[in-house]
Design goal:
Elements lengths: L1 H15 L2 H25 L21 H7 L1 H25 L4 H5 L3 H6 L4 H34 L5 H10 L1 H13 L5 H14 L2 H15 L2 H10 L3 H9 L4 H9 L17 H21 L4
Helix pairs in contact: 1-7, 2-4, 2-7, 3-4, 4-7, 4-8, 4-9, 4-10, 7-9, 7-15, 8-13, 9-10, 9-15, 11-12
């Protein structure tokens, strides 16, 4: 355990000393301040400013964006704040994980690590845990900042946002693990580019676009099924996390897309949280086997 700790600690401090970590954290603070402070202040100028809860029975079945925004601006602001926190965390995960091992391989420093009295498994786990720890640190700092801003703005501490982040924290860890595994097969920059493509393809607009192109243009349903199975189940995490804020928002955003093109279970899309953990376990095993069996020249 000690080698894992020392490898992880060194990698963790290397990550937190980079400008990327603090720039992304700074951008997150700016965006969340705009949403939770400026957005909350402006929401009090609307006709439903005094409404603090979402009473759907008073407004029928209308779940349009405008209606929800007026009835419950708090939920909309929290929804987008959660999206910005996890979105920037996903971006950080790509930048952090793409160089944890591949940079050592590219610069031929991996031979020095392997030559020490540590196993490849300890190296693999130590660096992976360092990446996860940096992502968690980012989300802890960002969430504390959001709590402070929401209190100062007059909105009050929002436990729903904290709970949503706690549920959604697996999203950047999953994305980072995928990039970490890919970096074993290619250079860090290429791994980062592939990670960004995967990240864009696994969100709702990306999955709708894949189905639109696959069915309308190429007419390859089996290929779409396989591609959905290969992509990380980010949709499941997002839906599970945002239920803490307002489940109707998720349904509303889905309904604004092409309803017949939105991915469903029959298309191969993941729908349960246990599938998220199973997917993560598979990626971890593939990465560990790849690193353990690879020959370095």
């Amino acid at each position: 355990m000690l080698p894992i700790f020392y490898i992880g600690k060194r990698s963790f401090f290397d990550i937190t000393r980079t400008g990327v970590f603090w720039v992304i954290l700074g951008l997150t603070m700016i965006v969340s301040f705009g949403l939770l402070y400026t957005g909350w202040k402006k929401s009090h100028e609307g006709p439903f400013a005094e409404s603090g809860q979402y009473h759907q029975e008073e407004f029928g079945a209308d779940e349009s964006f405008e209606t929800i925004a007026m009835i419950n601006p708090r939920a909309v602001l929290l929804y987008f704040t959660y999206g910005s926190l996890i979105g920037f965390a996903n971006l950080l995960a790509v930048f952090v994980m793409m160089g944890l091992l591949s940079r050592d391989i590219d610069l031929r420093r991996i031979d020095m690590l392997i030559a020490r009295p540590v196993s490849r498994t300890q190296i693999y786990i130590g660096k992976l845990l360092a990446g996860w720890a940096s992502i968690i640190l980012y989300l802890v700092l960002a969430t504390l900042w959001c709590g402070l801003v929401s209190i100062v703005s007059g909105m009050g501490y929002q436990e729903d946002l904290t709970n949503a982040v706690l549920k959604g924290i697996i999203a950047p860890c999953l994305v980072g693990t995928v990039v970490y595994m890919i970096s074993l097969y290619t250079r860090s920059v290429v791994a980062g580019v592939i990670g960004m493509v995967i990240l864009g393809s696994s969100n709702n607009p990306g999955m709708v676009m894949i189905k639109m192109i696959g069915l309308t243009l190429l007419k390859v349903k089996t290929a779409i099924w396989m591609l959905y199975k290969m992509l990380p189940p980010m949709n499941v995490i997002g839906q599970n996390a945002t239920n803490e804020i307002l489940s109707g928002l998720w349904k509303m955003f889905v309904s604004t897309m092409y309803e017949d093109l939105y991915p469903i279970r029959d298309d191969g899309i993941y729908t349960e949280m246990w599938q998220v953990y199973a997917y993560l376990a598979v990626i971890l095993v593939i990465g560990w086997i790849s690193f353990a069996k690879r020959e370095f020249n």
